[in-house]
Structures are given as structure tokens and as C-alpha cells.
Amino acid sequence: MILHTDDQTIEDLRIFGKRDSKGIYDLYNHTRTRGGEAILKEMFLKPLSDREQINRRSNIIEHFAKNKVSFPFNASLFDMAEKYLANADAQTRNATRNAVLSEKDVNNGVSSVIELVQQVRAFIDSAAVRSIAAYEEERKEIDALLSDPAFDPVHAEKNKGKLSYAAVTAYDLLFRTRERSRIEKLMQHVYNLDVFISVANVAAENQFVFPEALEEGDMLLLEGVYHPGVKNAVGNSITMNATQHVIFLTGANMAGKSTFLRSLSTAVYLAHMGFPVAAKRMQFRVLDGIYTTINLPDNLGMGASHFYAEVLRVKKIAGELHAGKSLLVIFDELFRGTNVKDAHEATVAVTGAFTERKNSLFVISSHIVEAGEDLKQYPGTGFLYLPTRMNGLTPEYTYTLERGITDDRHGMIIIRNEGILDVLKNGHKRALDQ
């Protein structure tokens, strides 16, 4: 089962990087093979929505991290094997004379596959790998592939000297024609292994924790969660359950609301992949989907304003909720695209309706603190804020959540501190001289 999400959420969470910045995928991508890199990307595009699958993957990666397992294969070995196997043609009568590969390519390809098969056998027979219960199913599948009698000569091959022409011809026929599907399945297992070890190393290097997917308990428990892409980040803790499944978040500009929302939703997204997260502890109940609205663009193509784009976004999520799905829904500054009066009324109406969906989690940030007062009448609503402390005329931010609602507004102070009004009145040079 796959976790439902969409392009807007993937963009909001910056799952994939752009030319000027790295994404979450880049932080976890230490793979050594092209196949592993492709599988990792697919995992990021399709998080899981099955508790057993999530915990199984998480347990495998956690054990690899604890045992400090290293990827036992040379990347250049895969380059040769992949080039060789990519030119396999079951219909070619003489596989060793495939027009695409030279005789040297065939020799190198055969040697690389022999070495790969032998290294995989040694790896799955090691005590460290045998001790990982969660990996046992996959280990047995690999063992079954390698134990086929067709591979007996491969396991016995010393491969120290140059293979004879007859041996290369026989192995080439075996690898690219007769047992090609087994070799391809074996490669897929190694690619998965590449991903597990890559993510395990990231967890160990950054001291990330492995979330636990629960059947019962709080819907979400996070201690010390922070954004993995932020240096010297401040961790925050949050618990969401049946008695508090809607959070109304307030705070001044620059207080850290958007970063916290990304930290929270990124952790939940990664947890549904079975991946380690930037936190001290995490437990969660598996959801059907995650939808965030943090950087919602205008749809100029259809002539839609920002407000109308927000309305369409809420409508889409309402449809998913009506279908009975259990979701994490994040709205950063809900209805910011309209006037304050309409935004107030709409925020209260929509957030109040969210409180009826007790199997889902909602975090709504807003500058409209008056809406928070109205929302106190709705059971299931909790109130958190990110405070601002004034040091003279300079605002300072703790980035640490506190309970309640804040009416901190420091926009004009920041504008004055930046000298914008002086620039407009006196010109840039005179403003700098003051």
C-alpha cells in the first residue's frame, strides 16, 4: 500500500533538490550504484502505508546502522556488470559476439559477474547479516537464487588468472541467456542492499532515530524533531491524539512557523518510508496520505488568484477526507490570499470542520489570532505558538514551541530596522550614513 500525496506536497517539503539547493533525497542518497539510486528515488516518490512493511524496512536499516555494515562491492564492478548485462539478447545465437560489445567488454563483463556472485554469497553468509531477522526473508531469496545448480561452476571459479575462451563463452551463455532472469533478480537485491546501507550510514552519521509504527496509542508522538537540512536546528516536541488532533499555530514572521511545519511533515513523510528521521524519538500511527500547503503558487494558466488556488486546495483535501482517508494536513497561513475578514471567517469554518475528522491530523498556522479565540469552542483543537522576545528594538526568536496563542507582530519594527522608510524618504546613500 502506498501513501497518498501529490506534487504540491513534494514541492513544499523540497523532497528533490533544485540547481541551487539540495533536497531531502540528496541528504539520504549515498548510494554506490545507479540501480540503487533509482530505487531510492522510487521510494521517495512512493512512501508506504502499511505498518508491517514500514517496520520491516525500518528494522533492516536500523540493524545495518547498528552493525556498521559497509557496502561490500566496488562501484566499478557494477559499471562493468551493468554494461555487460544491458546488452543481453536472448535471441542472439552467439551471445559472445553481440555486435554492441567488444571481446574485451565480454571478458570484463563475465569476470565482473563471477566476482559479484561470489561476493554476494560471502555477504549473505556473514554472521552480521544472518543476525538481522528483518532481512531474513530477503536473504533467503538471495540464497535461493545463488543455490541453483547452474551457478555451481561460478562459486567454484577461482578467477585469479585469465579465463579461457571456452570458459568465457560458456559463462556468457549462462549469464546473458540461460540464467539472465536470475542474474537480474540478484542485481535488484544488491540495489536494495545499496539503499539500505546508504540510509543506515546517514542515520549513524547524523544520529537520526528510527520511528516506530504503532497499531494503537497516540496518533503522533515526536520529541526533539528538527529539519534535517537546517544547521544548528532547534528541536521541538509535539503529541497529537484523539483529544488534540488539530493544532492552531501562531507566531510572528520569521519566528519559525514554516520551518516547523516542514520539520513535522518531513518527519512523518520519511517515517512512512521506513527511514530514520531528524528527532530524538518518534512513534506514529500509519496514515493514508499527507497533504501540505506551504508554498502554494497562483495558477496563472487558468487565471486563478492565490485565494482561488487555496480554495481549490481545500476542496481537494475535503474530498479525500470525505472518502474516509486518514491524513496529515498542513496549511501554512490558510487563506492568506484574501482580506482579513474573509480569511478569519473561512479559517474558523474550515478548521472547525476539520475537528470532526478525528482519524486525521491537522496543523494550521495563521496570523489571525482572533480566529484562534473562536476555535477554542471546538473540541480536539490545541494551540501552540513560536514566541518572539524583544531585545530593545531587535526581535529575537527562540524557535521553541509554547502552548497558547500569541499576537506577536513585529513587521513594522523589522521594516524600520532595515531603514526602508528612510530610504524612501532620504535616498539610499543618506539612509546608510545615518
Automatic annotation (TrEMBL):
The record's InterPro entries line, in alphabetical order, gives: DNA_mismatch_repair_MutS_C (IPR000432), DNA_mismatch_repair_MutS_core (IPR007696), DNA_mismatch_repair_MutS_sf (IPR036187), MutS (IPR045076), P-loop_NTPase (IPR027417)
One Pfam family named in its UniProt record: MutS_III
- What's in the keyword line of the UniProt record? ATP-binding, DNA-binding, Nucleotide-binding
Single Gene Ontology MF annotation: ATP binding
Q: Which SUPFAM superfamilies match?
A: DNA repair protein MutS, domain III (SSF48334), P-loop containing nucleoside triphosphate hydrolases (SSF52540)
The cross-references to SMART domains, in alphabetical order and at most eight, read:
MUTSac (SM00534)
Q: A cellular component term (GO) from this record? A: cytosol
- Domain of life per record: Bacteria
Protein name, entry field: MutS domain III
- What organism, scientifically named, is this protein from? Chitinophaga terrae (ex Kim and Jung 2007)
| Phylogenetic lineage | Bacteria, Pseudomonadati, Bacteroidota, Chitinophagia, Chitinophagales
